[in-house]
Amino acid sequence: MGDYPVHPTSVHPGFLCRQLPADAPSRPELDAFGVALRDVRDLILPGLTHWQSPRQLAHFPASSSTVAALGEALTAGINVVPFTWATSPAATELEMVVVDWLGKALHLPETLLFCSGGGTLLGTTCEAILCALVAARGSKLADIGTTAPAATID
After folding, report:
1. Closest alpha carbon to 51 in 32, 36, 31, 72
2. How many whole angstroms separate alpha carbon 104 and alpha carbon 119?
3. Contact 49, 60 (CB under 8 A)
4. pLDDT of residue 152
5. Which of 38, 73, 88, 130 could form a disulfide with 82 if both were Cys (CB 3.0 to 4.6 A apart)?
6. Helical spans, DSSP H, in 40-124
7. How far apart, in whole angstroms, are the C-alpha atoms of residue 41 and residue 38?
8. How much is the pLDDT for 40?
9. How many CB atoms lie within 10 A of CB 95?
10. Contact 33, 80 (CB under 8 A)
11. Is the confidence at residue 45, as pLDDT, over 80?
12. What pLDDT, on a 0 to 100 scale, did the predictor assign at position 121?
């Protein structure tokens, strides 16, 4: 991903439609997988925003390491749908344990951890990580006698 610009610079609406056939192939190509990968490399990747790029600093990439990519492959194979505890009890509880690990690593108060009866589940893991980091920042600022600037949502 590091070889591509973070955000495509030479694309305009309709750029991909003009490069692909108007109709699906009527029969499979001899090397369909190879052709598909070539299209991904030559047509798709240059037109994407590369969230996993080492130069993408707007978000926290969660699957940019080998271990994370393997975890993504495993979860794709299992196809867990963890909307709530009722839809996937083990996934929800695993998330609670891992969020507690992060909270402990950031030295958050026990009252904010699930294991002490506190905590909260948010819509995504990214939201949970962000909330844990904001809480840790506030704690550190309180320790050094400074307050955090008011947060704004744009």
Report:
1. 72
2. 12
3. no
4. 57
5. 88
6. 66-78, 89-105
7. 5
8. 93
9. 19
10. no
11. yes
12. 66
pLDDT of residue 44: 93
Tokens of 107: 């030295």
What is the rounded CA–CA span in Å between residue 105 and residue 93? 18
> C-alpha angle 43/3/33, rounded to 5°?
40
pTM: 0.48
Helix residue spans in 8-88 (DSSP H): 32-39, 66-78
Distance CA 132, CA 112 (A): 9
Of 51, 49, 69, 68, the residue nearest 60 (C-alpha): 51
Residue with tokens 């344990």: 97
CB 131, CB 95: distance < 8 Å: no
Q: Is the pLDDT of residue 61 over 70?
A: no
